[in-house]
Amino acid sequence: MPSTLLAMSNEIRPFRIDIPQADLDDLHARLARTRWPAQLPGEGWSRGVPVSYLEELAGYWGTGYDWRAAEARLNEFPQYVTGIEGQDVHFLHVRSGEPDALPLILTHGWPNSVTEFTELIGPLTDPRAHGADPAQAFHVVVPSVPGFGFSAPPRETGWTAGRVARMWAELMHRLGYDRYGTQGGDLGAYVAPEIAKVAPGRVAGVYVISGLGFPTQDDVPAMTEDERAAYAQMMNQDWAKGVDHHGLLRAAPQTFAYGWHDSPAGALAWMVHKFHEFNPTGKPLEQVISRDQILTNVSVYWLTGTFGSSSWPMYDSSRSAWPEGQKSVPTGVYSGPPGIRRLAEQHNTIVHWPEDNPTGHHFIAMDQPGPLAADIRAFFAKVR
Prior knowledge:
Radius of gyration: 20 Å
Number of helices: 16
Mean pLDDT: 94
Number of strands: 9
Structural class: alpha/beta
Distance between the termini: 41 Å
Helix content: 25-40%
Largest sheet: 9 strands, mixed
Low-confidence stretches: 1-7
Strand content: 5-15%
């Protein structure tokens, strides 16, 4: 288990990841005892994660992957725990050496964790060391969403992105930040705009990876021919037509949590399947996000037992919907397409809508941290 979390104290106290060796030994023993199924007929990934692929990756997780190195890397970032609304919240807080740095809170996605931003934090907090303008530095705050990783799991139903946003606004207030930016992708794209609704006088701008202005079937009649073609292409992507994790986890999260909590091979298969579906590059997943990055994220879920508790964004919702955004403060995105700007502007004041940033994995911070950091700087230079 991770270092013991505090009993919901609102005091901010240091936190350090320290997984007992017995937990790692148990993980390795379970991987070694995996009861592998036969490969079903079908080409490639047409039936899900191929057995040969997962056997090799699980073997590496058990005998080659170095959790202690990953743990040490994560512990390079100052980490803390504080109680907010009765929940222990874990977060990274990395202050820049630049005196005029803008505070920025990053919200990770699902199924991800604070490990999503490991390679992004440096370019944001120390742009000088990465060949960028030091005047565009950030103090970075990266919380673990409740139920994910080292933050405590929700103990009741009724959780929403808005509730998380209220917690993040309180966290930034508690850290002494009167004005700051918000950023998020995937789940974070829902949370980041909500912070601006909660604290519009404090938020300088909202930056999301993508998702604003995504069309639905109801928008098709008013689309141009080019927009219809882009919509058809979007709906043909693996992430749009693959396993409906929203429906699955809305219907029976407890049922599936038994397998993910008890079998590391089952948990790995689920995680790799989603990361594969979220990879529109056409390249093998390991060429886009390293297997060590993927395994560090899976290990955080496994070692904290949070595969089930991290499902609340699905099971506490009644339907799937794209993020809408807000009009309280200016908004920027990393990638406008496949969103349609005129649709996004119905609910957002868009001031930054690039269409030529480097494309990549859905979790772009893990794939393209340099270009993402540069674009975050470009947006906040307009609003800070």
